[in-house]
Amino acid sequence: MEIKASTSADYTIKLWHISTGQQLYTLGNHSDWVNSVAFSPDGKTLVSGSRDMTIKVWRCDI
């Protein structure tokens, strides 16, 4: 399954199934805008950076 992530001003990250366009998950643990996201090469880890000056590491076993 191919997954992509989008960031938002509502402090969340949304994970999407590319083929169907279906939203799979919303990740929300930042306290300010999420500026960037990146997947690990194996697609099992997502890292997000925010204006709240934190970096979060998310496990993505989808």
Structure description:
This protein is an all-beta fold and 62 residues long. 0% of the residues lie in helices and 52% in strands. It has no helices and 6 strands. The chain has strands spanning 3-7, 13-17, 23-27, 34-39, 45-50, 55-59. The chain has a 3-stranded antiparallel sheet with strand order 1-2-3, with no helix packed on it. Strands 4-5-6 form a 3-stranded antiparallel sheet, with no helix packed on it. It is globular and about 30 Å long.
- By secondary-structure content and strand pairing, the structural class works out as mainly beta
User: Tally of extended strands?
Assistant: 6
Query: Mean pLDDT, rounded to whole units?
Result: 92
Low-confidence stretches: none
Whole-angstrom Rg: 11 Å
Order of strands in the sheet with most strands = 1-2-3
Strand content: over 45%
> Residue share in helices?
under 10%
Number of alpha- plus pi-helical segments: 0
Which descriptors apply to this entry?
62 residues; mainly beta; 3-stranded antiparallel beta sheet; 6 strands
Nutshell version of this structure?
The chain has 62 residues and is mostly beta strands. It contains no helices and 6 strands.
Secondary-structure blueprint of this entry?
Elements: E1 3-7, E2 13-17, E3 23-27, E4 34-39, E5 45-50, E6 55-59
Antiparallel strand pairs: 1-2, 2-3, 4-5, 5-6
